[in-house]
Amino acid sequence: MHIFQKLTVWLLKAWLLLSFSLLFISEVNAEQAILIHHPELQNEDFSKQSLVRIYAMKKRYWSDGTPVTVFTLASDNNTHKSFVTHYLRMQPYQLKRLWHRLVFSGTGSIPQEVSSKDIMLEKVKSTPGAIGYIDHSQIKNISETMLPGGIINE
Amino acid sequence: MNRYIRHTLSFLITGLASTSLYAAEDIKIRGFFSQAMVVSEDNEFFGTESGTHFDYREFGLNASWELNPKLRISGQLLSRKVGTLEDGDPEIDFLLADYNFYVDDTTSAGIRLGRVKSEYGIYNTVRDVPHAKPGIFVPPAIYFEAFRGQLLALDGGAFYLNHQSGIGELNLDVFGGKSKLNNNGIEQQAFQSSINGEFEEVEKNGFKISFVPSSIPGLYLAFSLFDASVDLESIPNYSFAELGLAAAAFPTNPLVVFNYLSSYNIDTTLQNYSIQYNWRDWIFTGEYTRLDTEITNAASPVESLFPPTALDLVFADQKRESGTYYLQAEWQASEKISFYARYDDLYFDKEDKDGTQQAAQSPGFVSFARFNKRETIGSRWYITPDFSLTGEYSKNRGVAFLIGSEDTDYQSLEKDWDLFILQASYHFSL
Does the interface ipTM go beyond 0.90? Predict the structure, then answer.
């Protein structure tokens, strides 16, 4: 079989074998993200569709006219991963692909990255129009006015 | 340099000079780098010889500066080393001022001036950005490399509108301007050789309209219209002796007259239909382009040496319609791994899909350079969120996707060929 002697085909097989084997190495993610928002945004729409538009930087203003300010943690942060997979129902790299599209085509700007969960909480609490997420363990530090509908809705 | 670019540049420099007035955090610097290993045993790919090479790398450096919520300046330097096609010299990929003059909770509208990316299809604006697309290359049937210069950014302006209503989200982009070509892919495509004179500047304009219906979450529909026209420029003065030799060679080699043209205009209109559907971990994408090419004003002083009708066939105005499409499936299998498969199909002439008519009319033309069918499978592994390895294998029939390399020896190309590429990509921010 001439075709299986070709280098390109061997490389293909090796690459696919590696890719598939990586599928079985899954990381256990114990942290659970909770969506939070500035206390004055209680009447806004926090459905999955609305959140995707917000994190894709398409929804720029709330219904009361306040500009939307989006905060995020680093892409490899476990709370971030939990937020993206549970609330936005996509893989973190898919969200990042949307952000790369905005930045590298010159058509938009992307969310502000903050360096820790505590800073995230502080920023969302103090910035009008802000939206973000915290880890489940921080829930005792916030008032229910920062939760959509006043409840934990993950 | 176009005057819009010059204005934007002076605006940018004036702005930078007064940077101290603004907080440094308003200026963001980001970039990307990619390096590929190309294994192409049958045909030369981005190179002059078949085999394995590392001669494909890209580097992009991007700065974005938000002066206020309505005014943003952003620019990008791009360096591409692509075999014999591109030498890696940094170029201004785009440099623009974006004025978002109207925005409320449902509508946003604005203008971009300077060098702006042409909105065409799903991937044109991000064709060189590794992590903004699933594979190593954007689908070649729609975004083929030989047409890169025509599709890339333009010096001019664009108007954009985004509107969200109960039925869905509507986006409109309208643009117009000019750009310089930086390789002679068009010559290779039209003549299968490098000729006297150059195609240097493209005039382009068009629009893209897209719609995301509320009733079907995950569905994206778009239509783009793109018009690009180029004229042959920098034509030398041919000596009478040169023309005489060309005329003498003509009966046995008709292609020789293409090397002694006095004018040649190519006008291309593309109508692109895009559909994308995201369902759970799957993204299905399809795009179809109808490509109309019109060749006018083809003329050569060699004509005067022949009776009036002898060269009519060569210099008559020509209209060609072609169709091209791809279908792509992507499976976002886990947090670090994605798989994709794609089928690309391109032909240059609807009436002559396998190129045999063209080859019969023009001795020396390779028929299978007029189409390309490609099956691709690949996967990407995100070692970190910003560092990935992508491996991709494709089986090809026809060599239209190879067109563009300088001094390609068309006669030596294989009609059926395989390609494996491994690419490492890294995105960073400073």
Answer: no
